[in-house]
Amino acid sequence: MPATAPLAFFLILTGAAMGSFLAAWADRLPRGESIVGPRSRCRSCGVQIGARDMVPVVSWLWLGGKCRGCGAAIPKRVFYAEVGGMALAVLAVWVAQSPLHMGLGALWLWLLMGLVLCDLAAFRLPDGLTGPLFLTGMLLAWEDPSRDLWGALLGAAVGAGAFLALRIGYRMLRGREGLGLGDVKLMAGIGAGLGLTALPMVTLVAAVLAMGVAGAMALRRGNRPDGDLAIAFGAYLAGAAGLVWLWPLI
């Protein structure tokens, strides 16, 4: 660990910045705004947020979670995403088998977190996240002596193929979309990163999480679960993939 301490420290700091970036992406996605620009503004007063107020974690705490200009509350999800990015980096450092594994693992978890945030915010899984997830998964397989690239490709093909079949079958039976192509692409990335044998566990964990949350929401509203309730299942798949990858810590 001492030899990799500088890298670990760098990844933890980067995690806060990644969390801020991914939270902004999820916030802009429902409105169709670009993540590249323009600069972030307060949603209440429209004032452009200055550099000193965009330091991850520190600025939110310093300002008490409020806009410097008008005092409007800054969504807590931004702060949670920044802290979450740091926490995921710590977990990646903990399970890392090498410096390269450490960096790839942190990137893998950040991409999964971004997909969770985007799917919950807009029911969308951007190609800008699913594509890098697949590439990172392939690199994780290449870096791991116990795996090979052909196995990673097989996992990606089976994961994507199974969910594509589910998508087509649901549309034939119900006459409408049940799974988006984003879920298919997500499963390709998960299959590449975790391998074929992990896919059943990822799907099971995601289903349990989704049903649990849907049931809790129904109880909170005082009614029975609705079969037509829209569920951001990609978010649960991404979360389940992260849990399975971190299984050595659990």
Into which percent range does the helicity of residues fall? 55-70%
Mean pLDDT, all residues: 90
Head-to-tail CA distance between termini: 21 Å
The largest β sheet comes out as: none
Number of strands: 0
Strand content: under 5%
How many distinct helices? 9
Q: Low-confidence spans: pLDDT under 50, at least 5 residues?
A: none
What order do the SSEs take from the amino end to the carboxyl end, as H and E? HHHHHHHHH
Q: Rounded to an integer, what's the Rg over CA atoms?
A: 19 Å
Number of domains: 1
Q: Could you characterize the architecture of this molecule?
A:
The chain is mainly alpha-helical and 250 residues long. The protein has one domain. The protein has nine helices and no strands. Helix 4 packs antiparallel against helix 9. The radius of gyration is 19 Å and the shape is globular.
How do the strands and helices of this protein lay out in sequence?
Blueprint lengths: L4 H24 L29 H5 L13 H20 L3 H24 L4 H17 L5 H26 L6 H14 L4 H23 L11 H13 L5
Offer a quick outline of the entry:
With 250 residues, this protein is mainly α. It has one domain.
Offer a few descriptive terms:
single chain; 250 residues; mainly alpha; 9 helices
